[in-house]
């Protein structure tokens, strides 16, 4: 049996459009909700993306 890892799948939702990124994060390093500036191809500029449930 494999051990339960610290990495979990998350969804990053754009704050300015409906675009989403699907990625993983390490729960030990980032226990709270993640916020990061990434490129939004809908708007064609960098915007803030927030982790959704």
Please tell me about this protein's structure.
By secondary structure, this protein is mostly beta strands. It has strands spanning 7-14, 20-26, 35-40, 45-52. It has a four-stranded antiparallel β-sheet, with no helix packed on it. The model has no long low-confidence stretch (mean pLDDT 94).
- Give the low-pLDDT segments: none
**What is the molecular shape?**
elongated
> How far is the N terminus from the C terminus?
27 Å
Helix content: under 10%
Count of β-strands: 4
Overall residue-averaged pLDDT value: 94
Structure keywords:
mainly beta; single chain; 53 residues; 4 strands; elongated
Short description:
This protein has 53 residues and is mainly β.
Walk me through the topology.
Blueprint: E1 7-14, E2 20-26, E3 35-40, E4 45-52
Antiparallel strand pairs: 1-2, 1-4, 3-4
């Amino acid at each position: 049996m494999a051990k339960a890892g610290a990495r979990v799948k998350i969804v990053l939702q754009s704050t300015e459009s409906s675009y989403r990124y699907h990625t993983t994060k390490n729960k030990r390093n980032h226990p709270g909700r993640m916020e990061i500036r990434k490129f939004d191809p809908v708007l064609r500029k960098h915007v803030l993306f927030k982790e959704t449930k």
